[in-house]
Design a protein that fits this description.
9 helices
């Protein structure tokens, strides 16, 4: 796992649109697992703060992230653990690899410059989209956003790393696994 964090750090120190060296399916699966565990570990940092905000009624009480009353468990899990992660990955991470279509519009040199910007900005946008989970956008909500969406921002950076270094499917699978585990935790 040490190699994982070194590669993650090096990637964000100087982002390049280059796949990981010595790719194997086993290495891909390991990195999916490492990403999931890193996301889980880093997310645990935010739980005490979220608990305190909730306990002091600083998070709106009337919001419901997941409404299970109108859906069956299976339908809810399909939406939360399959549809939503797939859609979010298509929107936020699918476009961040240089491809044949881009070559018609953007030179490789311009892409190298844009890529670095995208790698830093897209996970932030991914996180801020999740502010909608907490109801209407208000100034207090915006001020609390680092705590409220810190987990999503971290996940965004981790999934972006997987997307670039391995492939789109790796990011999708990890995101689906994350949403599934989180949903089951909320349910049970």
């Amino acid at each position: 796992m040490k190699t994982y964090f070194i590669e993650l750090f090096n990637f964000y120190k100087n982002p390049k649109d280059v796949r990981i060296k010595n790719y194997t399916l086993i290495k891909n699966i390991k990195y999916i697992l490492y990403t999931f565990l890193a996301d889980l570990s880093l997310t645990l940092i935010f739980f005490p703060f979220l608990y305190l905000l909730s306990k002091n009624n600083l998070i709106p009480e009337d919001f419901e992230r997941i409404n299970y009353t109108d859906n069956t468990l299976l339908k809810s899990l399909m939406v939360i653990a399959v549809f939503v992660p797939l859609l979010e990955e298509i929107i936020f991470r699918f476009p961040i690899r240089y491809n044949k279509l881009y070559r018609y519009f953007i030179s490789a040199k311009v892409w190298d410059f844009l890529f670095k910007i995208l790698v830093y900005i897209i996970p932030l946008l991914f996180g801020f989209v999740h502010l909608s989970n907490f109801g209407d956008l208000t100034l207090p909500l915006i001020l609390m956003s680092p705590v409220l969406i810190g987990s999503q921002i971290i996940g965004g950076y981790l999934y972006t790393f997987l997307r670039v270094k391995f492939n789109f499917v790796s990011a999708v699978v990890t995101h689906m696994l994350w949403n599934l585990v989180l949903s089951l935790g909320v349910i049970f």
